[in-house]
Design goal:
The protein is of the alpha/beta class and 231 residues long. It has one domain: Collagenase (Catalytic Domain). Helix content is 42%, strand content 24%. It is built from 6 helices and 9 strands, in the order E-H-E-E-E-H-E-E-E-E-E-H-H-H-H. Strands 2-1-5-9-8 form a 5-stranded mixed sheet, sandwiched between helices. Strands 3-4-6-7 form a 4-stranded mixed sheet. Strand 3 and strand 4 form a beta hairpin. Helix 1 packs across helix 4. The radius of gyration is 18 Å and the shape is globular. 32% of the residues are buried. The protein binds zinc ion (ZN) (2 copies). One zinc ion binds next to helix 6. One zinc ion binds next to helix 4.
Length: 231
């Protein structure tokens, strides 16, 4: 069995997003690995705390947003994974996966501007750090509905149902995103089948994908996991 350390990074997130999106994605991914008989599991290592000093206030087309530089996050994840590996010597684990609630940005080395990313992989001394920004998967209107609920406004039954549906959609989209990045981490490339490795042109297209790998990708994933085990 191989493990991937799983964490989330971010501040100011509604508790329901953590419970019904982040933790459900974690649970359902593990259930998927189990049902597909893949010798792979996520291991939850707790939330990753950010040093506030690293946050950057960035002006974008969508207004001013708080972002976290990729380079700092990679360093943080690297040291966190090392620490976890020290404490869990009995298990096979050299990868860490972080869901981030804020956009991921990196200063372009050649031009002086920030680029935004959705999913990012970095390998450092044999360890793999994976980061996926949740923001692009968030259904429209969800944060407004959640904010309305927080201010104590009475939510009618219809609004509550909308929130529930949007949280569910958020979780579905993110689960596929997580499986996509996990696929990359085991050497899978993009494919053209009904498969999470088929990267979509739009979120509508993404919503039509079933959460799983096509036969080709699944076979490659099994081989890769088997190889990792040394035979
Ligand atoms: Zn991809
Ligand atoms: Zn595929």
């Amino acid at each position: 069995m191989e493990f991937i350390a799983f964490t989330y990074v971010g501040n100011f997130v509604d508790r329901r997003v953590i419970d019904e999106v982040v933790f459900n994605v974690f649970d359902e991914a593990n259930r998927f690995f189990d049902e597909e008989n893949l010798p792979l599991r996520f291991l939850y290592i707790g939330r990753l705390k950010l040093e506030p000093g690293y946050l950057i206030n960035l002006t974008t087309a969508e207004g001013r947003i708080m972002v976290y530089p990729l380079e700092a996050l990679v360093e943080l994840l690297y040291s966190r994974l090392l620490r976890e590996m020290e404490g869990q010597r009995g298990i096979r684990m050299n990868k860490i996966f972080a869901l981030t609630t804020f956009p991921l940005v990196s200063r372009n080395r050649y031009f002086d501007f920030y680029e935004k990313f959705l999913g990012v992989h970095e390998t450092l001394l044999g360890l793999r750090m994976m980061m996926l920004s949740m923001k692009p998967f968030e259904p429209e209107g969800l944060s407004r509905l959640l904010a309305a609920g927080k201010t104590g406004e009475d939510l009618d039954v219809d609004v509550k149902r909308q929130v529930k549906m949007k949280l569910h959609l958020f979780k579905d989209r993110l689960l596929k995103g997580v499986l996509h990045e996990v696929g990359h981490s085991f050497g899978l490339e993009h494919c053209h089948n009904q498969c999470v490795m088929n990267s979509p042109a739009s979120m509508e297209e993404w919503d039509l994908r079933t959460p799983g790998y096509c036969d080709d990708c699944m076979a490659k994933l099994r081989t890769s996991l088997g190889d990792d085990a040394g035979g």
